[in-house]
Design a protein that fits this description.
Blueprint (H helix, E strand, L loop, with lengths): L4 E4 L3 H12 L5 E4 L12 E3 L5 H7 L3 H7 L7 E4 L5 E5 L10 E3 H9 L4 E3 L3 E8 L2 E6 L4 E4 L1 E4 L17 E12 L2 H4 L1 H7 L3 E6 L2 E7 L5 E8 L13 H11 L5 H8 L5 E7 L12 E3 L2 H4 L7 H17 L5 H30 L5 H12 L1
Parallel strand pairs: 1-2, 1-11, 2-7, 4-13, 11-17
Antiparallel strand pairs: 3-6, 4-5, 8-9, 9-10, 12-15, 12-16, 13-14, 14-15
Helix pairs in contact: 1-4, 1-10, 2-10, 10-11
Length: about 375
């Protein structure tokens, strides 16, 4: 008799797990609180690493489809000083496939495929150790029971409390996101500034990063060290007030860089939270965690990649039909936890260097990555 398996969350981790299980003819049920796949903007672009995210897609049988959708040219990176001086202008080889970019929405749709996703089913609590298995309680008042519940529901996971008392803490860095549409036709000068990939401008304890997505869309991120309540006094819908606050914060920077902020129509404030670097938990039968639910780390390109590989590896462990599925999950947690701790330490140190008192640290980090 096959296990009853539920996945909470339809992000990259949960969908990769479900898709690899599906490839091995094992059905799982995915629960997602959003009412539909397009209920909210899917976010920006992701660079999928050959040994992490791309490896996971290969396990799901989706690598060829990914390569057809991805943008290898999106790996390009330009780094400027606040006065506009070009410090680095790196462009990938034509055949470079180490970290091609893909829009989050495109990746989501690729993974969704034939999966059974129950939209609009927000989970409020998970109770292991019940007579009929793990009890999952939903916001609509209903409850269901499963043999295994996989928590892939992100930073503020509702599954995590079933195995761990840890909660995310503020990293000290806040990010404000905006975007530009039809940049090639409406903002050609900014399109040239950003190039085919990403643009980063580093100053003292602050930075502006712009990333090209598909379809002439550019995401712009202002990131800086600030108290958790920075700009909390502003109405979230008051774009003019947020724009003025940001322009004051980056006063004196080169005008083309500031123009990236001036042209933003809407702004979202996102204080960056993280879990402890070596977050682990005592194994609880019937419940496990993937991705941000397990090891929320600074968003420096590793989190989604790790989450996808974890999802694929856990699925392969279970699809192999181990004699003791719970022991297989426990062993997976040990391996995944050790690897995630290494990446969490790297990304935590990276954030310290990217948003620091010495902007040269950010450029040096870029050089180290590309020299390796």
């Amino acid at each position: 008799m096959r296990q009853r398996i539920a996945v909470v969350g339809s992000g990259p981790a949960g969908l990769t797990f479900a898709r690899v299980m599906h490839r091995h003819d094992h059905a799982v049920t995915v629960f997602e609180r959003d009412p539909a796949p397009d209920a909210r903007p899917p976010g920006g672009t992701l660079d999928l690493h050959e040994e992490l995210g791309q490896r996971a897609l290969d396990k799901a049988g989706l690598l060829a489809e990914f390569r057809a959708l991805s943008r290898p040219e999106g790996q390009a990176m330009r780094i400027l000083a606040p006065d506009g001086t070009v410090l680095r202008d790196w462009r990938p080889r034509r055949d470079e496939q180490a970290n091609p970019e893909i829009d989050r929405g495109q990746l989501r749709d690729l993974l969704l495929g034939p999966l059974d996703v129950r939209w609009g089913r927000g989970v409020v609590r998970v109770l292991p150790g019940q007579p009929d298995g793990v009890r999952v309680e939903f916001a609509d008042g209903r409850a269901e029971h499963f043999d295994l519940v996989v928590g892939a529901d992100g930073a503020w996971s509702k599954v995590r409390p079933a195995v761990s008392a840890a909660t995310p803490h503020y990293s000290g860095v806040t990010l404000v996101e905006t975007s530009l549409d039809e940049v090639d036709t409406r903002h050609p000068a900014l399109a040239r500034l950003v190039g085919e990939g990403s643009l980063a401008v580093y100053g003292v304890n602050r930075a502006v990063v712009a990333q090209r997505n598909s379809g002439g869309h550019v995401k712009v991120y202002a990131q800086f060290r600030a108290p958790l309540d920075w700009a909390a006094d502003l109405d979230p819908g008051d774009a003019a007030a947020m724009r003025a606050r940001l322009l004051a914060l980056f006063e004196g920077w080169a005008d083309p860089v500031l123009e990236l902020l001036r042209q933003g129509a809407e702004f979202a404030r996102r204080p960056l939270h993280v879990l402890p670097v070596a977050h682990t938990w005592t194994h609880v039968p019937g419940v496990t965690l993937l991705g941000d639910a397990a090891h929320l780390m600074p968003p420096l390109g590793a989190g989604a990649n790790l989450a996808m590989l974890e999802g694929a590896e856990l699925a392969e462990c279970l699809a192999a039909g181990p004699a003791d599925p719970d022991a297989a999950v426990r062993a997976f947690e040990g391996r995944a936890g050790a690897r995630a701790a290494r990446w969490a330490a790297l990304t935590t140190a990276g954030l310290e260097r990217l948003v620091s008192e010495d902007p040269a640290e950010a450029v040096a980090l870029f050089d180290e990555v590309h020299a390796s």
